[in-house]
């Protein structure tokens, strides 16, 4: 570990406070580098794991048009994950680590991914909710980080956010078709919203450290890796999407959900944060199955990595 002088740290924080962008080859404190690796690795892996629930719907989507649309979305999500993991690799290289370390952390449970991607998606309504509301929640989070102090992450997010907007529109198209469809289709959609609601609230993470016993929120805000708290993001999500759900004549499974004009905030039923902790530590409904799929894929494609590694070494010798 590099010993950080007080003068170096002060100069670094001055750059952060002045809105300067930190680049991969700039000096940075170990704490900042570790926070970035944790945040970007988790984001990248969540993009990859997030493609798996929708991947299940590629052969089952109701029309050829829907199959092509969801296939393109899955491809985009995997691309987002690869882009982000490349950003993380640049940060890990000085530590003598790389992509394989990220994957092994995922397989061992040390690296977490978003709670929503541990959940089941057995109906077409679930596919719509994922693309509309889960991606909508992701857009709110990612847009907030466009101004991150780490330049490479911000530039990657700019591309990702642009594509996520199309994903949300794809989801909204599915939702509108179901909402305007038969009685059975509306019931299917309502059931999906009921099943996903608490997971959507959990998406942004706990309000405070007391909820789960740990959070990196304060550190990430101090380093300006993010600019809003978990609760601020959750309030934005509620403000944007609750009226839209109600406008479709659908309900939200929370009788306490109200908007306080005085505070300009929503009151809502708190999720069970201990359940959230259980889910993200690999004990969700589909956690083991999706991790096993990821492990099989990684092992089956080891020959590609070996071949690429051999090709690079050969070119260097030449």
Word description of this protein:
The protein is mostly helical and 318 residues long. The protein has one domain: Ferritin, core subunit, four-helix bundle (Ferritin, Up-down Bundle). 68% of the residues lie in helices and 2% in strands. It is built from 13 helices and two strands; from the N terminus they run ααααααααααββααα. Helix 3 runs antiparallel to helix 6, helix 5 runs antiparallel to helix 6 and helix 5 crosses helix 10. It starts with 5 loop residues before the first helix and ends with a helix.
What is the CATH top level name? Mainly Alpha
CATH architect. name: Up-down Bundle
Multimeric status of the protein: single chain
Count the helices. How many? 13
The 3D shape can be described as: globular
Please state the structural category. Answer: mainly alpha
Number of strands: 2
Biggest β-sheet strands, sense, barrel = 2 strands, antiparallel
Strand arrangement within the widest β-sheet reads 1-2
What is the fold-level CATH name, i.e. the topology? Ferritin
Keywords, separated by commas or semicolons:
318 residues; mainly alpha
Can you describe this structure in just a few lines?
The protein has 318 residues and is mostly helical. 68% of the residues lie in helices and 2% in strands.
Topology:
Blueprint lengths: L5 H12 L12 H26 L8 H29 L6 H10 L15 H21 L6 H29 L3 H20 L6 H4 L4 H6 L7 H18 L10 E3 L4 E3 L5 H11 L3 H14 L1 H16 L1
Antiparallel strand pairs: 1-2
Helix pairs in contact: 2-3, 3-6, 5-6, 5-7, 5-10
């Amino acid at each position: 570990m590099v010993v950080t002088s007080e003068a170096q740290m002060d100069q670094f924080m001055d750059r952060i406070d002045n809105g300067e962008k930190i680049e991969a080859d700039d000096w940075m404190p170990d704490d900042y580098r570790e926070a970035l690796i944790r945040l970007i690795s988790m984001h990248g892996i969540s993009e990859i794991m997030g493609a798996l629930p929708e991947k299940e719907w590629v052969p089952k989507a109701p029309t050829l048009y829907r199959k092509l649309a969801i296939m393109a979305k899955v491809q985009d999500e995997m691309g987002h994950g690869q882009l982000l993991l490349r950003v993380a690799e640049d940060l890990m290289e000085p530590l003598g680590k790389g992509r394989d370390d990220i994957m092994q952390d995922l397989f061992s449970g040390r690296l977490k991914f978003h709670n929503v991607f541990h959940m089941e998606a057995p109906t077409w309504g679930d596919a719509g909710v994922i693309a509309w509301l889960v991606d909508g929640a992701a857009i709110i989070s990612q847009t907030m980080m466009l101004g991150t102090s780490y330049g490479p992450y911000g530039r990657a997010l700019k591309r990702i956010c642009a594509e996520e907007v199309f994903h949300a529109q794809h989801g909204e198209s599915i939702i509108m078709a179901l909402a305007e469809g038969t009685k059975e289709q509306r019931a299917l959609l309502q059931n999906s919203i009921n099943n996903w609601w608490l997971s959507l609230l959990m998406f942004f993470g706990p309000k405070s450290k007391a909820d789960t016993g740990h959070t990196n929120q304060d550190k990430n805000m101090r380093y300006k890796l993010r600019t809003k708290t978990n609760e601020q993001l959750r309030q934005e999500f509620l403000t944007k999407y609750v009226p839209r759900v109600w406008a479709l004549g659908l309900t939200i499974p929370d009788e306490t959900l109200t908007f306080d004009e005085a505070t300009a905030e929503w009151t809502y039923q708190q999720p069970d944060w201990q359940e959230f902790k259980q889910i993200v530590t690999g004990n969700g409904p589909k956690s083991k199955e999706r991790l096993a799929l990821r492990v099989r894929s990684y092992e089956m494609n080891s020959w590609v990595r070996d071949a690429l590694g051999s090709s690079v070494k050969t070119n260097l010798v030449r």
